Amino acid sequence: MKKLTLIRHAKSSWNDPALDDFDRPLNKRGERDLPGMAQRVRDAGLVPDRLLTSIAVRALTTAQALADALELNSDQVLVQPELYAASYQSLLHQLQQQNDHWHHLMVVGHNPGLEDLGYYLTHERLTKFPTAAVLHIRLKISRWRELGESCGTVELFDYPKLHR
After folding, report:
1. 103 near 49, Cβ under 8 Å?
2. Which end of the chain is flanked by fewer CB atoms within 10 Å, N or C?
3. CATH number at residue 121
4. 70: domain range?
């Protein structure tokens, strides 16, 4: 059985309209929510074999905080430019290409791709998929290339507003 954890980057800033979307940093709420989210991921035992992240600044910042909290080695973190603004189909394709050596993958990325992928894999509709949300899915597959529609079950769905 494989496991997949989908994490939306922490809340980002729109303060600088001249800044490209790709370069937007976290805002104050994102900086405040990120340590707690990373700690909850750690407390839940969601330590992946490999963490895949978008190359956008807000995703990289989120992924680094997770890697630090989970004590991941640098070789466990893979920056994948293709994850930036990826559709669920693109995310699915990227995951299907992963080495079967990895039993638990974690993806830090963006909406709507993550939310759509979560629904595709589980057919469980989430009311929302806010920033710094964590969706952990147990998959009924033994190889990543088998990843497909309705092959998973939601085991955890968490986000910062649940803890305020």
Report:
1. yes
2. C
3. 3.40.50.1240
4. 2-163
